Amino acid sequence: MRISRPIAATAIASAAALSLVLTGCTTGPSSEGEDITLTITTFGTMGIDANYEAYEAANPGVTIEATNLESGGAARDDAYAKIAAGTGLSDVVAIEEGWLSTIREVSDAFVDLRDYGIEESDWLGWKYAQGTDADGRVFGAGLDIGPQGLCFRGDLLQAAGLPGDRAGFAEALGGENATWESFFEFGQKYTAASGKPFFHNPSFMWNSFVNQQDEGYYKKDGETLNIEGNEAMKAQLDLIVQNANIGAGLEAWNVGEQAKADEFAVYVCPSWMLGVVSGYYDAGTTGSGWDFADVLPGGAANWGGAFLGVSESSENKEAAAKFALWLAAPEQQAASFEAAGPFPSRTAGQELVAGTTSAFFNDAPIGEIFANRAQGVVAQVKGPEDSNIQDNVFGPVLNSISQGEITSGDAAWEAALTNLKNLGIE
Amino acid sequence: MGTTMSRLATERPGSTLTFRQKLSNLDFKASPYLYISPFFILFGLLGLFPIIYTVNVSLYEWDLLKGQGDFIGIENYVTTLTDPLFWNAFFNTISIFLLSAVPQLIFATIIAALLDQAIRASTFWRMSVLLPYIAAPVAVAVIFSQVFNQFGGPITGVLETLGLDPIRWGYDVLPSHIAIASMVNWRWTGYNALILLAAMQAVPRDIYESAALDGAGRIRRFWSITIPMIRPTMIFVIITSTVGGLQIFTEPKLFDGQSNGGPNRQFQTIVLYLYEMAFPRRDFGRAAATAWILFLIIVLIGLINYALSRAIASQDVRRTVRAPRDAALDLKGARR
User: Fold this and answer.
1) Are A257 and B258 in contact (CB < 8 Å)?
2) Which of A184, A317, B3, B325 has its CA 20 to 30 A from that of A20?
3) Cα distance between residue B197 and residue B107, in whole Å
């Protein structure tokens, strides 16, 4: 994503300058007097890579060795295997919200960041609470949150005779009162007029819907399943089946080629998705037709977001915690947002990006939009099998709907319950 | 009493030996064991111990992250064998195995027979068929995933120009199995061809000559002499490709990196099922039970293959000369 506002440069520069000042207080290039290497494992497009160099420059003697895994799933398998082995975790580990609840159960693999000066008041309350375990230990420092808006192709909508500007598109869906019904109604009009599919795959809409509910796959106690007999979920699945005709039948991820070939016109975009969409195109692309609207059918919801943990097995816990907390500082959160879209989980960070626009998304005021989209977000209680349910209970059903193999809401719901039973989740 | 007596009896002549002689005696008796010990020590540490420990894990409720739980006996085996997803993985594995092993052996035998002819630059041709084996499986999987890409892959391009619908390689069961089997075949056909070629080269040429004098054509000679004579090697190749084919993991895992064997488990093999149990689902007990079930399946299918391949070739062998077993034994040593 190309940044059009001067604040981008200022934020990064001031971040670097600030750390220079902070470390400059100590005598000499390195107060510990020895060279250390800090390892960090991240996943997907988190936009923090550019911060490493600034940290190295500000902290002579520190070398950052970074590993970026292709997806949150790969990072999950990697972290699980290494926690199980009791060795091998990077000094700093990025944890995704989807499997955070599993990590919480073995949170003693990570240090208590309260010992290294993390302050609750700096973070959004719910984000801080997510990174805290039952004993009150803070094992993860919140990095980004995932408020959601809609990425859309203004040019394609316009060509189909529909409102293609940000405000007009949001208004056509119902603005603040947009529902999934009105969203699909709009999509039907688009497909009827253009002959092209409206969305790429129903899984994003399903996940957003689940995140919008008061209780997701689990009840509020985080232990009791909330799926069987859940009429709202059944109705949503039915709605998706009825509108499968305007889906492109594509895979959920890696659809860059199809996006470029105009094979769909809308994408449900949590903040971290912006970098993924713009990543489909060459760096610096503008005028691709993509835009970003301040609207989400069904109301505000958070999807995903990452945390940084410092592993207990690290040989340089002190330095690693300092590095992790630096990456989670407002300035760096702002820089990551500028680079790839993950929205800051600290109010100070959100203020820094309030005026940010994105050249890729038709100069959309993304800072302002995400601040709006984050209003009213309530963190949903996730249970231990949450990501398993998403991937293995509803994922296959949504694929079958997408491929035209399930054509009735009842059949879809039955298939989901069968999957749940086969997986033995109770 | 008796043992003390005999020990005394054996020690007595020994006591007349010098220290050097004793040392030399010890060297003679113990050294061979010492020389072969590295393999057995490593096998014990990295092979036997994990195998036995896996039995232990499979009898407990065992969370990947939280560790050992309650002893539950064979419950993990029962749950696995009654899990429809396990049987889905079982049939996928058998399907991919058949789609890879059968064409692989047929083509390997044909290629070996061609290379066995007097051709120019034979070393060049022999090296060439081994080339795919050198490529890393991960690289092969990545490239083939591009080739078998429903959206914009070269095969889709060809189908489109012919006016045909694209094949859903990543979604439909049979096409995905064919795609994965072709990666396996690409990698292993040449390798097996070379092993079979070595066996063919060991067949005495005078047998072919006398058969030719008796009026047997090329094809008749191939069926009545070559095939029966390379039977032991054939059995070896079949057994090793059975073991490999049933443990297939890399190719289906990388064919769709986002899932564990397809969006709806269309090509989830038993080892992928095991992986899903162990890591994403964190049930180490059931993963261990799956590993043992897979072991038993491989032994069973290996035995069936052995019996079948014996039956196929044995009648011919009786009609012709005994196969030169030594050649095949040499090969087994070479493979290690």
Assistant:
1) no
2) A317
3) 12
Extract the tokens encoding B128.
């060439």
- Chain A residue numbers touching B258 (CB-CB < 8 A): 71, 73, 251-254
ipTM of this complex: 0.82
Helix (H, G, I), strand (E, B) or coil at A407: coil
* Residue in B62, B63, B65, B156 to test binding to A, most A beta-carbons within 10 Å: B65
Q: Which residues of B touch A396 (CB under 8 A)?
A: 263-265
Q: What Rg do the C-alpha atoms of chain A give, in angstroms?
A: 22
The partner residues of A64 in beta bridges, in order of sequence, read A38
pTM: 0.82
Rounded CA-CA distance A92/A327 in Å is 10
Contacts of B263 in chain A (CB under 8 A): 251, 395-396, 399
CA distance B244 to chain A (A): 24
**Of B84, B257, B258, which has the smallest distance from its Cβ to A422's Cβ?**
B84
- Closest by Cα among A332, A333, A418 to A370: A333
pLDDT in tens, chain A (426 residues): 344 444 444 444 444 444 444 444 443 344 455 799 999 999 988 889 889 999 999 999 999 999 999 888 899 999 999 999 889 999 999 999 989 989 999 999 999 999 999 999 999 999 999 999 999 999 999 999 999 999 999 999 999 999 999 999 999 999 999 999 999 999 999 999 999 999 999 999 999 999 999 999 999 988 899 999 999 999 999 999 999 999 998 888 888 888 998 999 999 999 999 999 999 999 888 999 999 999 999 999 999 899 999 999 999 999 999 999 999 999 999 999 999 889 999 999 999 999 999 999 999 999 999 999 998 888 888 888 888 899 889 999 999 999 999 999 999 999 999 999 988 887
